[in-house]
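sorry for the late reply, my laptop died twice this morning and i had to redo everyting from scratch. anyway the thing you sent over, i finally got around to it. pasting the sequence first so we're on the same page, its 146 residues, then the predicted structure underneath. double check i copied it right bc i was rushing
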Amino acid sequence: MVFSKTTGYGIRALAYLASQPKDSRHGLHEIAEHEGIPPVYLRKVLGELRRHRLLRSLKGIRGGYELARPAGEITLWDVFRVLEPDPYLDTCILGHGPCEAESACPLHEDWLQVRKEIMRLLENKTIAEIAVTGSRAGGEEEPAIQ
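ok and here's the structure:
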């Protein structure tokens, strides 16, 4: 699995928000329940996404979370680089520290190619695309993308 649990939760929460009617806000517990994410964990993830301006939150009776910009402008890379501990995937796949040509492991060249493809995917796939197919396996009903 390339995504950490934290990144997967972040992508799923953003996709859920993207699938909701435009200009609507949604509470932490609603998102957590719909996506099957522990609310305490989700609060931390959403806080990090808010700090990096991928989400906005408002307090009060009409409060909740909403996307900070259109879902089609938020890439998986935007989420990955905020939530992943090693977003550039520059750690040796065999656990030998930094992935460097000077100290190449037997999988170095193969890992470079895989990394390049993963980065291409992350930079080109948007939250809107994830929301359309549904963040869960098998998808759900067709969402109204923001």
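The radius of gyration is 17 Å.
thats about all i looked at so far, will dig more tmrw
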